[in-house]
Structure formats: structure tokens, C-alpha cells
């Protein structure tokens, strides 16, 4: 119990007390001196001085109060006394502290995350007036040309900036590494009002059209990690996919770009992105992938609503002026940072916060009933203190001090744990290669919230036994002896608390089971691909310096090399990202063959577009429903062909069988013949509605950045080694990341996994609280009725009857609370359905699981008290009292 | 020692201020000084002095410092602050007015009315 000793030291007798003693003693000595002078012997003089002085303790107390120091002293006394009491029951103290630490810690962590994502905006100056069109809101401003028009025509923004992602290879000192960059408009930093840490930023004046600004600005972290804080990097030339770029400066440490959950390594002008990627998309108005988000500060006096109308008017005008390239839907302006994820993320965090508060409430109910039980046990002590003249307020204050002490200890431990957890979250890299950055940091607000929760807790459970103390009749208790409160038939506060607590726990258990079940389903859903047993190899031939005409040749050699590896069943290639990887997808407009006016409004579908090699479908595990695969003869000299999925076939041609051989048109007017139909699948997220998809042959649509898909039943490690070896034989300098498709899908499963983990932890905490609550009550009721049970046993009661007497009440309360909680839980988990794929609360398995869990909890928690009840030896018991 | 009078409520503070105004004193010294200036007519319970002293310090009317007494013992000496001096003046004036009025009232005789 060193901890309590240390705490006690804090409240050691204060110096003020010593001073007062010294002063009063000095007074009496002076008086004794005077008496001695008139002939009284010293001993007698001192005695008389003491007598004349009067009630020493009383005057001391009065002096304390007069000096204003009484409150602190009483508090000190209370704390010392509370520590002594708690030390006598370390089991209780530790249980209480651990319970509170878990509950307060959980709240602090959830609050910390919520604080970072919901309560705080982007870490840039004047974030309040920063508004933009978010990716994923279908506003239709995702092309650079549209951005330029929006920037120049609007009357609402001071100026508008935009950014996009780019993942080039950066070469310096002959070493090339893949990097994650933001391709930004040159006014990006000026619009955000950010100042450089080192060197300078690029500005609007630096760009003069496509490819005119070969500059980059490093993020602080990348400068630190990759360039070792070298201040001489400013002015150095590095190679991005073999093109020279000059480092202009370094961004400040607290600036992580304009997405909350991702921090780029560096920034390059968006006008140079084509140069780096080997594309020509900048001036392609129909391209939906050149701008990710557009944002700027509103002019003073302009409301968000006015700006939204302004933006919508421009969007409609653009759709009218360029019907082939632009389709504009309703724009909504949001604060940048979370893009379209904002809504669901906020809802989920709010739900989680609610559950965390429920845990805290359950913990308080738990501790409240423990406290009430203790107060009942201490009825005699309290009665004695009352009889000796202590007043009730002092006793109540004493009990509250105990509660406060436990709360603060629990709060401190919980906070320490949450700080560790939040710090780890901040440096968490859930996906290798994806520059995830969670801006969580344990800050003053988190501390204040934890402190407030601790105080709230202590008030909640500390005041519960008050009624008991206030009603204590000292004479009756002392005369009657024994317990202050008998376990009667009536419903007590403790019973209500237990039902509340079990109800809350049942809610938590049900929620977590729903989430786990949803996750399990999403793992084994119909993806239209079989990620299991499939390896992927990411290569970017443009990054490796291959010219356009050599790219498809090399890709074909790579596929053949993969097929030659022993044990490989199929190998194929897909350009860009495979389905369900990094939530990336690109869609194209398609038109019926008969359509002549190819404006966007006439498009019959906007399927996801994939560029694939022959053999990709087999490698991906996608089944053919009709027709043939694309072949090695479907090249630039052959007529354009495509594979489509069932959804595409049924939507445009009416049936799977009727699709093969038919034609559709692309935006450019190109006619494409359907040669095969494949099964439906999921393409970007697991929760998406069924989407159409079209697969074009890579020899007709060359792309340098691609994934090889290799299907094999071989063990992963030797297979990866073989893959790497055969790629090296083709090109020793080719950077290639080998990874299983399943692990690449982590990003897609990430939200569901996080939700499941969070809810799982909450559920486990709820279960723990339920166990301690039921256990506490059952143990208490058994111990209170031990004597009665003994008499019953002596009179020949059966084991079953004794058990029913001892535990019946606890079990009845358990059943009642569980049923209430299950119903509430099923209602609450509707909220989960939006985050966790396929999470339906009306799942009989979940219901059964929740009931089973609650039953098990009850069984575990009543097991030990039940054994104690059965072991009752009437002789021993009756002799004892 | 002669006849002794009970202190009226509120008069102890004034007596202490007056006693201390004649020079810094420790607690016991305050008692002796009060006895001296009142001709031993006013009785102060020894212990009751201290709550009053602490109250006056807290009100900023007195300040206290540890020192050595004439008996060569450690003792806490009290002296008036500026606020204390002002308060003493006000209270003394008030008290004189009250005392004069009371004396006049009690001295009234039927034939003078």
C-alpha cells in the first residue's frame, strides 16, 4: 500500500498548525515567567498558565477558523481518514480504482479522437471560413478545367485552391523511393495562409501553364526523415519519376496538408502532375480524377449558403456549356478535412462516445451499489460516530471524500492509460505505404474532460449511500446491534442500480456482437473476386523509366514470367488499383450504341472502369457468365472490345446472354463490342450498392502503373521469393512491392475493423462490469443471510432451496436487466448498420449470442457466492454469533 | 485589582487594535497592555485573544512577525497596518460618540427635561 502512504504524505500536518502551537505555547510560557517572578515555583507556574489559558483545543480550532485555514485542515483530516478506511479494504479500493480507470480511460480516449476529428477543424489559420467542394459529394468539379472556371467566375471566395494525390518515385543521391504527394494549385499555401518553415513556398505567379513549375515543397516530417533535417536542401534538385524538380522549401511541422487522416510527403504544383505521371489530363475537362478537393476562404460577409448557390449556378452553367464533359449535380459546401467521410465518421464517433458514457454510467452504478453496501455494513460505525456527537454533514462529507479519492485515483490511472493510447494512435500506421496520419494528441481538453468525469462519478456514486446515512437512527442501530439494513423483500436502491447496470451491459454486449457478426459477414461476402490465395505485385513502369511503347511489351513479359513460376495457376494484370484496394475507383460514361448526342445527361450508365490483361479474371477468381476473355490479339490493330459485369449487361442490354456481341459507346464516341460477361462484384467499398463495371483490354488502353495478380496455392513466403527473383531476372532495377490481395484490402475493411475493435472493447468492459456488479450483489446478499441460510440448512433445507434463497434475487434482477438491455441494444445497433457492413440487429445468432453471454456472465458471477452458500456449516455459524 | 467588567461583543477587536497601536506586541503582551490601559477593569479570557488576533490579521488590519521577546523567548509580534490604523480611528470615534451619548442619556434627570 505504498501508493496510499505517498498520498498521505501530501496531506501531512501543515506548517501553519505548528506555528499556531508555537505561538500558544509561547503565550503560556510568558505567563508562567510572570507567575514565577512573583514567587510561584516553575512547575506550578506552568500548570496555572495552562489552566488560565482555557480550552486549548477549542481556541486552536477557533483560531484556525478565524485564519481561514479550517477548510483545508478538515479536508486533510477527511482525506487521511478516508485513506485509512480504504487501506483496510484494499480489495474494494483496487476494484473501484480499476473500474473507474477503465471507464474514465475509455471516455478520455474516445473523447480525444472525437476532439481531433469532430471538434477541431484543420490545423490552418482561420479554418472557420474555409469551405470547399468535397470529393465524393458528386458536385462535379473534379477536373482542373472546371476548377479554373469555378475559381475565376465565383463571387464568394477570396481565392480558390485545389489539390490531388500523386504517388511518384522520388530519387535523390541515386536512391529512389515511392512517395505520397499532394499535387496542388500554386496558390495552395497562400489560400491556406500558411508560412514556410524553411525556404519558400510556390505561389500563383510561379505557374504558367502545363509543366511550367518544376518545384516541390517538402513536408516537415519527410524533410526530417528523408533529408535528416538538412537545411541545405533548399535549392537542391531531385528527380520525380526521372524528371528534375527543385526543392523550394519546407512546410511547418504542424501542417499536414488538407486531409485530416493523411499527411503527404511533399507538395508539387498540379500543373506538373502530367509531366510526372506521363499523362495528359490537365486540360481534359471530362477527366474526373485531376482534382480531389477545391476550397478557399469565403469573402467577409458571404454566408456558406450564398456561396453554395454561387457554386451551383456555375456548375449548372458549365454543364450547359460543355454537355459532353460536365454533368453537374447539387453541390454542397463543407469544411475541408474529412471529405465525404465526415458524416459517417462523426456519427460513429458520437455513437462510440455514447457507449463510453454508458460504460461510465454502468461503472458508477456498480460503485454506487458497492458504496451503498459498504455504508450499510458501516451502519454501526456511523451510528457510533453520530452518538458521540459528530454531525451528519461531517459524516457525509467523509463518505464523499472517499468517493472523490477513489475517483481521482481512478481518473489519474485512466488518463495515464489514455494518454499512452492516444500517443500510439497518433503514430499509428495501419497500412504500409499509405501515409495515414491521425491528428490525435492528448491535450488540455482531454485532461479537463477526464477530471470532470472523475468529479461527476464521485458525486454520482458518492451520494447514493447518503439517504442511508441520513436515515440512520443511532439509538436503534446501537440497541438492535448487527446490520443496519436488512435484506428485505422491498425494492432497494441497490436493486435498481444493478438492473440499470446489467441493462447497460447488455446493450454493450449486443452492440459488440452485432459488429463482430457484421465484420465476419463482410469478410466472407460476395466480392466477385477471391482475394484469398492471390498475390499482387505493384509496378510502375513509367516511374522505372520505360517509354510508352515498351510498357505493354514489358508487362506481357512480366505476366508470362509469373505464369512460369511453379505452382502458379493463373496470372494477370490490372491497371491502376485492383477492385477493393485503397477505396480507389474510376468510372466512365457509357452510351447506347444508338445514341448520337453524347452529352453527359444521355449517358446510360457510369460503370467502374478497369483495364485488364488476358487471364486477369482467372487470376482474380472472377467467374465468366458468358462469352470469352480478352485475348492477346485484342490490341491496337484489332477492333475495340470489352468485358462487362452482369449489372452492366442487364442494365444496358437487358440480359447476360443478350449482351455478348453487342456494342456500346464511350464518351469519345468510340464503339466498343462486348465479348464477355462476368459475375457481379464489389469495387470500391463493401457497403456500396451493386455497381456496373467494364473491363477493357490493356493492349488497347496502355497504362504504366499496374498490379500483377498471381493465383497460387503455394505458401506465401517462398512464393514471394520466387516472384521477386523472376522479376529481377527481367529488370534488376524495377521496384516492385509484393503483397497479398487480402492485406491490400485492409483499407476497405478498416472502418469495419476499427468499429468492431472499438465495440468489442466496449462490450468486454460492459461484460466485466456486469460480472463485478452481480458478483458484488450476490456475495453481499449471501454474507448478509449466512446466518439465515445456516438455520435453514440446519432445519434440513435442500441444496436447491438454499441456492434459491441465496441467489434467487440476484438472478431475477439479472434476467430483468438483461431483457431490458437486449431490447435497448437491438434498437441502438440500428445506428451501426451504416458503418459495419451487413450489421443487422435482427440476426437470430446475435440474439442468441447476447442471451448466452448474459447467462454465462450471471453464472460466472454467482458461482463463487453460490459455493459459499452451499458450504454453510450451521454449527459453526450459530456458535459464532 | 478592583471591579472588572465583561467585554461587550465587538469591543475586543477595538481593544486589541488600540493596544497594538501603542507599539508592536506579542499575544501575551497584548493582554498585559489591555489590562494596563484599562486599569485592569476589562477582563479578556486569555485563549479568546487568539481567534481575534487571527481574524484581524486575515482582515489585513494587523500584520505579524516572529521575533524575540523581552524574556528572550520566541514570540509572534503584532503591529498595525495602515488599514488597521484607519479602522482604529473610525471605531474609536464611533465608540466615543456612542459612549458620550449613552453617558448623557443615562445622566439625564427628570428636572432637566
UniProtKB/TrEMBL annotation, chain A:
Residue span, ABC3 transporter permease C-terminal domain: 354-472, 761-874
Keyword annotations of the record: Cell membrane, Membrane, Transmembrane, Transmembrane helix
Residue span, MacB-like periplasmic core domain: 95-313, 500-703
Pfam family, one: FtsX
Provenance organism: Acidicapsa dinghuensis
Signal peptide start and end residues: none
Transmembrane residue ranges: 92-114, 348-373, 403-426, 446-464, 496-520, 757-782, 813-833, 845-864
Family: Belongs to the ABC-4 integral membrane protein family.
Name recorded for this polypeptide: ADOP family duplicated permease
Automatic annotation (TrEMBL), chain B:
Any one Pfam family match given in the protein's UniProt record, by short name: PadR
Gene3D superfamilies found in the cross-reference section: Winged helix-like DNA-binding domain superfamily/Winged helix DNA-binding domain
Residue ranges occupied by any Transcription regulator PadR N-terminal domain in the UniProt entry: 16-90
Coiled coil regions, renumbered to chain: none
The organism of origin for this protein: Acidicapsa dinghuensis
The protein's name in its UniProt record: PadR family transcriptional regulator
Domain of life: Bacteria
